[in-house]
Amino acid sequence: MSAREDELAANLAGVRARVAAACAAAGRDPAEITLIAVTKTFPASDVRLLAGLGITDVGENRDQEAAPKAAECADLSLTWHFVGQLQTNKARAVAAYADVVHSVDRSRLVTALSAGALRAGRTLRCLVQVSLDERPGGRGGAAPGQVPELADLIAASEGLELGGVMAVAPLGADPAPAFARLAEVAAAVRAAHPAATAVSAGMSEDLEQAVACGATHLRIGTALLGGRDAIVR
Ligand SMILES: *Cc1c(COP(=O)(O)O)cnc(C)c1O
């Protein structure tokens, strides 16, 4: 094993232990939870090592970085999750390699992703990103009141499949009330679309609270891969 593989294996064991403890505390089965390794800023070689350690789901947040990485790792049959804010003009590119897009927050993006999926001959699973931040210019997402309509639009769009909902907890606030709100929005979406069961919530800092509130998908970067250098744009 390389030193990096040792490090990733230890980090993964630590995250799996946290998930197991959070599930035990919440009376949930860890098998209900998909761990997504968010590999942004880290090289394709790390994705390959994580795949060797049993990771099946990978997340990225920028098309420029994700597209070549997904191509380099095409032999690994991973599930690729696009978790970052997505510009409409990048939707077609993302539809060519992503399996799941977590950040669908407006109708124009739904239209663009549907066109991209049809063009690529693929089916794209879409989650509606819910804004849990009252402050404007927060971390993206549709207002909770707009979520049912967006969910209906995704479900009715060719090439798209409605997977559920996603949110990022507001910065610098207790994540528990935000995740509780997300659980309500998720239940409303499920009432109209019973197959849309995904609740993507929880990052390195708040995975316990997310599991307690019913998260099915955890998006974990730092706790698995280590600290990220600041992204210079
Ligand atoms: C980077 C990122 C994550 C992972 O964050 P960590 O705190 O490093 O675990 C999760 N979700 C989204 C949307 C991200 O951009």
Number of helices: 9
The major β-sheet equals: 8 strands, parallel
Helix content: 40-55%
Number of strands: 8
Mean pLDDT: 95
Low-confidence stretches: none
Biggest sheet strand order reads: 7-6-5-4-3-2-1-8
Radius of gyration: 17 Å
Give the helix/strand class: alpha/beta
Task: Please name the fourth-level CATH homologous superfamily.
Answer: Alanine racemase
Distance between the termini: 34 Å
Q: What is the H/E order?
A: HEHEHEHEHEHEHEHEH
Quaternary organization: single chain
- What overall geometry do the principal axes of the alpha carbons give? globular
The CATH class designation is Alpha Beta
Architecture blueprint of SSEs:
Blueprint: H1 3-26, E1 34-38, H2 44-52, E2 57-60, H3 63-72, E3 79-82, H4 91-95, E4 100-104, H5 107-120, E5 124-129, H6 147-156, E6 160-166, H7 175-192, E7 198-200, H8 207-212, E8 217-220, H9 222-225
Helix pairs in contact: 6-7
Can you give a write-up of this model?
Belongs to the pyridoxal phosphate-binding protein YggS/PROSC family. One of its GO terms (molecular function) is pyridoxal phosphate binding. Keywords: Pyridoxal phosphate. Residues 34-228 form the Alanine racemase N-terminal domain. There is one protein chain. By secondary structure, this protein is α/β, with parallel strands linked by helices. It has one domain (3-225): Alanine racemase (TIM Barrel). 43% of the residues lie in helices and 16% in strands. It has helices spanning 3-26, 44-52, 63-72, 91-95, 107-120, 147-156, 175-192, 207-212, 222-225; strands at 34-38, 57-60, 79-82, 100-104, 124-129, 160-166, 198-200, 217-220. The chain has an eight-stranded parallel sheet. Helix 6 links the parallel strand 5 (124-129) and strand 6 (160-166). Helix 6 (147-156) crosses helix 7. The model has no long low-confidence stretch (mean pLDDT 95). The chain binds pyridoxal-5'-phosphate. The site of pyridoxal-5'-phosphate has 14 residues, from strand 8 and helix 9.
